[in-house]
TrEMBL record:
The chain crosses the membrane at residues 65-90, 102-121, 133-154, 160-180, 187-206, 288-310, 317-337, 343-362. This is Solute carrier family 35 member. Its main location: endoplasmic reticulum. Coiled coil: none annotated. Residues 1-47 are annotated as: Disordered. GO terms for cellular component: membrane. The keyword Membrane applies.
Amino acid sequence: MSGSKDQGALQATEAVVESSSAQKDASVAVVQSTAAEEDHDARNAADQVDEEKKGFLAFFKTKEFYIILLLGQLLAIANTATGTFTTLLGEEMWAIPTFQTLLNYAVLTIIFTPYTIYRYGIKGWFRVVYRDGWKYIILAFCDVEGNYFIVLAYQYTTMMSAQLINFWAIVVVVVISFLFLRVRYHISQIVGIIICIGGMGVLIASDHITGTNGGNVSHGNQLKGDLFALLGASFYGLTNTAEEYFVSTRPVYEVLGQMSFYAVIIDGVQSAIFERSNYVTSVWDGKVGGYLTGFTLCLTLFYCLAPLLFRLSSAAFFNVSMLTMNFWGVCIGVKVFGYKIHWMYPIAFVLIIVGQLIYYLGRKALAEARKPWLGQNQERGVTGLFTAKRRIEHTVPGASDTNEQLARSNSDRSAV
């Protein structure tokens, strides 16, 4: 009898132990399952953020869309102002295009190079120069020549013609982005660009009707100026695409600091070689000094804001935004040059804005901020203001750690 009781107690104890073990196994399985789900969520963090807003107008429901539109028009106005100051300088018989942009590069260098050294340390700054200097030299060269030929174009052609030719930069950007950055354009983006260019066509038609061309230029000089504008637009397209890539992978202060640092050298040497006689023949007075100051301030503002638009959208949309320069140019020209606004101008402006809206139809929440060359989760990118990576890591728990793991994995594969 006693043996039977002991055996029963032993069986009961074993049952309790087995039950406890089963509960522990179940708990471990739940924890592992939860961890796996969290890891899966982190690895698909970009998709989660993209799905925050639903529908065909998903991107229109984000604040980033309105920031992009505002930034685009602010940049267009700033760029129009630089063209206005350049035209005014030409009227004062002042023509030193390389020196004109040299002042802007000097200001950018003074602002961003010391800050880059402060953030990286002097050794870190020299490492950037040693590792990536050649890339920034190419970027600086394209930017210097783009500015040089556009400023030079204003001396031979009208402000309106030079701005109209800038649409060629869109073609350059789209082709380069497609071939080298693996960007694939949605049908709505192509339609949007075409409508924007249609708006440009309306502007051209109104110019022919009213004769508003920004001044009297002989046909020979007009052709020369238009060719300079076309060459400048080509350099701009290359620069914009490269800068979009750089600011998506490196801090803005590094990109602007390095580019302007080398641009000062390139610009200075070019000015000393080709423009020595212009320093003597050009007029130097208070009015010229004021125009140079206005030009430099507007161009510096343009350079500081452009990288933010590159991060939020793309080099293609950046150039589409610049198409409204012609509208703002006429608005400024009414006061400065005595232009008259034709009734077709507001229609052209509305067409360009509508084209920009269509450009983002069907886009998800991250839209073009999600760069195809930065990886699924943007792990190859920099965590900076207005980057998709920053938004992803701030929205999805664990995304930051996952991005670090993916970045290390990509680095290891590259090393192999």
